[in-house]
Batch of 4 targets.
Target 1
Amino acid sequence: MQARFITVEGVEGAGKSTCIDFIRRVLRARGIDVVATREPGGTPLGEQLRAVLLDHRQDITPDAEALLMFAARAEHVASVIRPALAAGRWVLSDRFTDASYAYQGGGRGIALERIAQLEAWVQGDLRPDLTLLLDIPVELGLTRAGRRSAPDRFEREHAAFFERVRAAYLEQARRHAQRYRVIDAAQPLENVQAHIKRALDEFLQ
C-alpha cells in the first residue's frame, strides 16, 4: 500500500490530540507503519520555533508569525515528512499548511496568495492525501481548551479571531472537498471517533 499523508485540523479545544491517538491506533491495527508528528514542531528546530510562537510574552507581527510557521514547516517537510513517505511510512500530522490559511490568513488577515507562495516554495507538490477537520463552535472549543492548561499566545485571542479561523477552515474544506472530511467535534467522543473511523475506512478502501 502506498504511503499516505494525513492531517488533522481544527480550532482550539476540538480534541485533535485525543483523536490523533485514536487514528494512530486504527492505522496500526491495519498493519500500517505511521509516523505521528505536529506543527509547529516535529523537529528540534521546529519545537524551538513552536515555543517562541506560543509564548504569550512574545509580541509577533502577523508577517513574522507566518514566516516562522513556514520556517518550522520547511524543516519539518525536509527532515520528517518527505523521508518518512519515501521510506513507505504513513505520516499523521497534527496540523499542516491548512492551519496557516486558517490562522495567518483568516485570523490575521494575510493575503491567501502570499501564503500560497510560501506553500509552493516550502512544499513543492507535497499536499495531504486526507485532511480531517474537527469542526466545533468557537465558544465550546475555547471552554474546553481553558480547562486543560494556561492559555498560550494564540488561545489568548478574542473569540472573533477564532470565528475567522473557523470560517477559513470551512472555506478550505469547501475548496478542497476531495481531500477534506469535516467531523462534528461537538458530539460525544465516541460519536466523533465513529465518524473518524468511517472516514478512514472509506479512505482506505
Target 2
Amino acid sequence: MLLRSVDYGEADRIVTLLTERSGSVSVMARSARKSAKRFQGALEPFGVIDAEIVLGASEVGRLGSARLVRGFPAILASLPAMAIAGRALELVRDATPPRESEPDLLEAVIELFEALCARPDESARVAFVIRYLALLGLAPQLESCGKCGKRPGDGRSSLFDPASGSIVCRACGGGPLLVPASTRALMSQSIDDGWTRSLATWTHDDVITADEVLDAFIGRHVPLGKKR
C-alpha cells in the first residue's frame, strides 16, 4: 500500500510502502514517471497492491513490479473520505517502524478504507488511530489509573494525563483532559480487534474529545518518523 511518493531524477520515483512482511519500506521505482504501463497504475493512493520488492543493505530498496489487486473507488469519489483517509495515512507513514514484520498493520488500514467506503466520518479515523497505536504497542492507558491502578466507577468521567499517557484518578493528581465515560468506553473498544463495530455510535463530541486526547498523547509518546 502506497504511503508516499517522491519524484527522483528525470523519470524515477522513491515510494514508501506499507507491506505485510517488512512493515514500512522505501523503494526506488525506476522509470515510474516515464512509462504508465510499467506499474499498471498501482502507485496511486488508497489501493492494495501486489509488489515485487528487493531490499538490501541500502536504506532504499528496489521496486521490481507492482499491480493493483484491490481499489476503493468510493474513497476516490468522495472528497471527505479522501481527506480522512489521507490524514490517517500520515500517522501510518510517520509511526510505522521501518522493515519490521507487522502484518496486522496493513489489515487495519484496509479495515479503515472499508469503513470509509460505507460511511466517510471522522469517527473512523479516530478509532483507527487508537487501533493502530495499539498494534504498535503504543496505545494510551484508558482502563485504570496509570499511577495506582484504580479503575473508574461505572458511568464516571476520567481525567487523562498526556505526560503519563494514561487516565489518572483525582487521588493521584488527575490530569488536564476530561474524558466522559461514554467516550472512554468507545476509545477502549477501538483498541481491540473488531474496532469498526462501534463506529456508528460515536458522536461529534466523542470524536472531538478523543482527538484532543490522541493529539496530546501522540505528541509525547509516539516517535514519529524515528526508528524505535
Target 3
Amino acid sequence: MTKMEPNPLNPGQVLSTLREDGSRIWMRPKLSKGRFLRRRQIFGYGLILLFLGLPFVRIGEHPAILLDVAARRFYLFGYTFHPTDSPLLMLLLLSIFLGIFWLTALVGRAWCGWGCPQTVYMELVFRPIERLIEGPVGAQRRIDAMSRPSRRRWGKYAVFGVIAFILGNQFLSYFVGWERLALWMTSSPAQNPGGFSVMAATTALVFFDFAFFREQMCTVVCPYARLQSALLDRHSMIVGYDEVRGESRKRLKARMPGDGSGDCIDCKACVTTCPVGIDIRSGLQLECINCTQCIDACDKVMDKIGKPRGLIRLSSQQTLQTGKASKIARPRIFVYPVLITILLGLMVAFFGSKGTADVTVLRQLNAPFVVLETGEVRNQLRVKLVNRLDTSRRFDLRVLNLPAAAVLAPQFPLPVGANDSATSPIFLTVPAERFDARGRFDAKISISDGAAFEETVSYVLLGPGKDP
C-alpha cells in the first residue's frame, strides 16, 4: 500500500479528513454522474429497500430476521437459534467474514463502496439531501466558512434528524421486533422509559454519524481498511490510475506538441469528486472505498478532450504497472470458497442433527450429594429443556434405572412455551450400595413430550466412595 501524498486541495493534512494540527477537513465531494453511479444507485437503493422491508417479512411465526438479545433467541430466515446454538452462529459469522475476504481478494473493497450501510446511506441518502438543501459544493463551503450555521444548515440538520429517527428505529426493529417497537413509539415515555431511552440513543447515534462523523467512520473507526494489505494482492481488482498512460501530467493549456505529456490534464476532477478526499493518482490508499466516482469523473473529462476512457479504471496493480493480465486462478481465490463451503456444511449438518428439543442436565451449585439418615444418597440436579418448536409442549421425566419413588421432580410434567426454555430441579435418591468404589452411579434420565420426542441422557451421580 503506497503512502498517501498530500492532497493538493488540502495541503498539510495527515489523513484525508485531518490536518496536521488535528483540525477537521470537511468533505464536500462533487457528484460525478456516469455509468458506475447509475449502477451503484440501482444496487444501493435496492439494499435500502431490503433493509427497510425485512423486519416486516415473516417466515412462519417470526420475522425473517429478529436478533432478540433480551430473550436470547435469534430468528434468521425461518431458523431459530437458541443460546445452545452458539457454535452454529459462530460458524455462520465466520462464513460471512470469509465471504467478505473472498470478495475483497476478487474485486477489492467493493463491499465498502457498494454494500456497506455506512457508504450506501451516506452517498445515496444524506449527501443528496445535503446538496438539495445547501446547494452545490461552492455553496456548502461558503456555509462552512460562516461563523455560525446558516438557516439552510439548520434545515438540513432537521431533515437529517427525521431520517435518523426513521433509520434508528428501523435498525432497532431488528433487535426488538416491530410490534414491541410500535408499542414504544405510541406509548408515553413515562410508561416505557427504557424503550424510549434506547430509541433516543439510537436516533442520536445515527444522526451524529451521518451529520458529523461521516467518512471518518471508514478512515478512523472501521478496521477493514487496515486489513487491505493482508486481504488484497497484486491481482485483486481495485480502482486505479494508469500512471504509464497518464504521466507526465500537465494542464491542457500548458501542453506543447511533442512535450511527452500523458493523458492526465491535471484537472483534479478525480480529487474533487472523491467522498473520502484522496487523490487516486497517488496509488492505492487505505481511505479508498472503491466507490468508482473518480472513474465517472475522469471518463467524462476524457470524452471532452477526445481521449479514450479508462485512465482511471477498475483493474489490478499487476495490470496497471506492467500491462500484463492478472491471474484469476491463484491460491486464495480457491481457499476461501473451500473454507466457506466447509463451514456452511458443518453448520447445516449440526443444525440438521438438532432434534425438536434440547436436554441439558446440570449439577446444583451446593454440595454434590447428601447422605440421608437412612443411609441413602441424594443428588440434586437441574434439568434444562429448550423447546425448538413453534408450539407449547409438556415434558415428562423418568429415570430408567431407578424406581419412581426414588425420583422427586415436583415441576414435571414441565410446560415449555414455543421456542422457549425452562429449568427445573430434580432430586434422585439412590441406595449407597449401588455406587461403585469411586462413588459413582450412572443414572439414565429419560425426557419425552408424549408424542414424537424422547431422549435419554446418562448422568453420573456422586456418592461416598468405598474403602479398598
Target 4
Amino acid sequence: MLKIFRTKSIADMVVNSEKTELTRSLTYIDLIFMGVGVIVGTGIFVFTGIGAAQFAGPALMLSFVISGVTCAFAALAYAELASMVPIAGSAYTYTYAVLGELVAWIVGWALVLEYSIAAAAVASGWSQYVVSIFGTFLFAIPEYLQKTPADGGTINLPAVLLVLILTFILYRGTKESAKITRILVIIKLAVVFVFIALAAPYIKVANWDPFMPFGMKGVITGASFAFFAYLGFDLIANASEECKNPKRDLPIGILGSLVVVTILYIVVTAIMTGVLPYSQLNTGAPITTVLDSIGYRFGSALLGCGIIFGLTAVVLVLLYSQTRLFLAMARDGLLPVSIAQIHPKYKSPSLLTAITGVLIAFVVGFVQLEVLAELVNIGTLFAFIAASVGVLILRIKNPEFHRPFKCPFPYVIMPLAILSCGFLVINLRKETWQFFIVWVVIGLIIYFGYGRQHSKIGNKE
C-alpha cells in the first residue's frame, strides 16, 4: 500500500529536464508575457464589475490586494520549486518529488480543473463578446449557434472554433504560439491603458462612499472569488523545459507577471467604481458599460475588440499548460505513454495537443459552464497548498539541494501561504466542495484502475 506514496528523485528529474525533446526558445520576457497574457483576462474585463456590485463595492480594491498577497506567498513557492526542478508539470511534478505518487496524481487531477475548465469558461466569455460585436457591426449570429443545449441553443460555435484554431497554433510548436501570445498581450494591455486614459478624468470621489458597503465579510468573499482573476502565474512553470535559462527566467516570469497584474487590477477597479456607482456595474462587460456611460461609444467598441484579443491569449496559454501537464503525467505512466509523442518537425506534443483541444472544444460547445467555473478556484488553491508544503518539506529533508532562487523566510511565508489559501478554500461555496469531492473520486478511480499499474516508477521496483 505504501507504494502509492513512492516519490521521484529530484536529481534524476533535473538530469531528465536537460535531455528534453522540446525546443528551448522562451526567455523571461516571453514568460512574463505568458503570465500577463493569461492573468489579465476575465478577471479585469468581467469580474471587476460583478465583484464590485455583488460582493465588495469599491472595496474590491482591497479584495484584489488580499488575493494578490495570497498569490504572492504561493508564487514564491513556485519560484523556488521551478528553479530547482525545471521540468513540465508544475505543482504535479513538484508534489511527485516530495509527497509521493498518489498525492501528485490528486494535485494533477485538480490542476485539470484549473486549466481545462478555465479554458472552456474563458472561451465561453470570449464568445459572448464576439456575438455582441458581430450583432452590432456585421450580422446577428443565430441564437442556436451561440448557446449550449442547457442554455436553449444547439452549440456554442464561436467558442468551439476559437479552441480548435488555437489548438492548431499550439500543434505547430511553442515558438510560433509565443509570438502570437506577445502580439495578443500587447493589444490587451493597450486596451487596458486606453480605458485608464479615457475614464480616469471622470472619476467622482463621491462614488467611493460607502467604500465598504458589504462590510469586511464582503471584502473577504470578494477576495475568494477574485482569486480566479489571478489564475495564471503558476502556469508559467509548465514552460520549464522550453526556457533558454529556466533557473533564472522562471522566478522572474512568475513574480514579475504577478506584480504587473496586481497593479492593473487595483487601478482599473478604482477607476470603474469611481466613474459609476458600484451598483451599476453588475454586468459581464463592465469596461464597455463605463465607457458608454461617459459617451465613448466608439471607444467602447474598440475596447470590446481588444478584449476579444485579450481573452484569446488567456485560452491559448491555458491550452498550452493543459497539454504540458498531460505530457508530464503520460511520461510517468499515469496516463497512456503513447499519447506523449513529440512531433519530429514541430517539437510539440502533437497528439496530446489535438486530444486536449478536441475535448475542451466539446465541453465549451455543449456543456453549461457557470456551475463549473468556481471549481477552478478550488483546484488552484489545492495545488498552491501542495507546492507550499513541498517547499517546507524539502527545506527540512534536503537543505543541500541547489536552489537558484530561494524563498525568503520560508518558515514564515510558506505557513502563511498554506493558511491564506486554506482560508480562501473554506470561504468557497458548499456546492463547490461537493463537485470537487466527486471530481477527486473520479480521479482516484482512474489512478487505481490504470495509473497505479502502469506507473514507470512502480515498474522499476
